[in-house]
């Protein structure tokens, strides 16, 4: 008997499946096969280096399109902190290099992030610095600590859903592995 998946488990598996790919660009693929978009890459814009790899999403979405029946949008959606538009998207991508200051005034951005996750949203943080314990990583940990004070980031075990979604993977994917595990 197959276990029943929650929306969060499904989104985690989709996100992990997208992370395991990394080849051709989707440039030039402007026509959708069905005319309906099921996934829009949504990225957070904040003060600082919020877009260190402006075409990274193209490679991931190209692989997702090629290897699954998920129909991703060709263009990404860029949103600002506190935007209610995030609640229309299952995936929020936050990347950066150097430092990361939690966006928005006071604790409002932490409340916004918490509400998004509690409503089933999946957040993917991507530290593009390639440095262990970078300013970006410290800023994200601080923001998550405000949003989820009762939970801390912990290494995910290798039998976690993220490692066993579309492909079975036994290690963290990426160009440069700073830590041999994902945290959640």
Concise synopsis of the structure shown:
With 184 residues, the protein is an alpha/beta fold. The protein has helices at residues 7-19, 56-67, 108-118, 135-147, and strands at 42-44, 77-79, 91-96, 122-127. Helix 3 crosses helix 4.
Tell me what you see in this structure:
The chain is α/β, with parallel strands linked by helices and 184 residues long. It has 4 helices and 4 strands, in the order αβαββαβα. The chain has helices at residues 7-19, 56-67, 108-118, 135-147, and strands at residues 42-44, 77-79, 91-96, 122-127. Strands 2-1-3-4 form a 4-stranded parallel β-sheet. α2 (56-67) links the parallel β1 and β2. α3 (108-118) packs across α4 (135-147). Mean pLDDT is 77; it is low at 16-32.
Describe the structure using short key phrases.
globular; 27% helix; 4 strands; 184 residues; four-stranded parallel beta sheet; 4 helices; single chain; alpha/beta
User: What is the global morphology?
Assistant: globular
- Residue runs with pLDDT of under 50 for 5 or more positions: 16-32
- Ends distance: 28 Å
Read across the widest sheet, the strand sequence of neighbours is: 2-1-3-4
Most strands sheet: 4 strands, parallel
Radius of gyration: 16 Å
According to DSSP, the number of beta strands is 4
The class by helix and strand makeup works out as: alpha/beta
Mean pLDDT: 77
Individual helix count = 4
How much strand? 5-15%
> What is the N-to-C succession of helices and strands?
HEHEEHEH
Helix content: 25-40%
């Amino acid at each position: 008997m197959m276990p029943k998946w929650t929306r969060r488990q499904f989104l985690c598996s989709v996100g992990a499946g997208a992370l395991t790919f990394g080849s051709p660009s989707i440039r030039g693929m402007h026509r959708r096969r069905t005319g309906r978009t099921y996934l829009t890459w949504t990225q957070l814009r904040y003060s600082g280096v919020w877009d260190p790899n402006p075409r990274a999403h193209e490679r991931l979405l190209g692989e997702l399109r090629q290897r699954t029946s998920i129909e991703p949008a060709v263009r990404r959606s860029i949103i600002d902190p506190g935007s209610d538009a995030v609640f229309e998207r299952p995936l929020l991508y936050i990347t950066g290099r150097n430092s990361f200051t939690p966006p928005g005034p006071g604790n409002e951005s932490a409340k916004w992030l918490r509400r998004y996750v509690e409503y089933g949203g999946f957040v993917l943080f991507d530290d593009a610095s390639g440095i262990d314990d970078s300013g970006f990583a410290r800023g994200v940990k601080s923001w998550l600590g405000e949003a989820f004070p009762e939970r801390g980031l912990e290494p995910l075990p290798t039998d976690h859903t993220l490692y066993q979604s579309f492909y079975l993977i036994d290690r963290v994917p990426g160009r440069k592995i700073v830590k041999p595990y994902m945290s959640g």
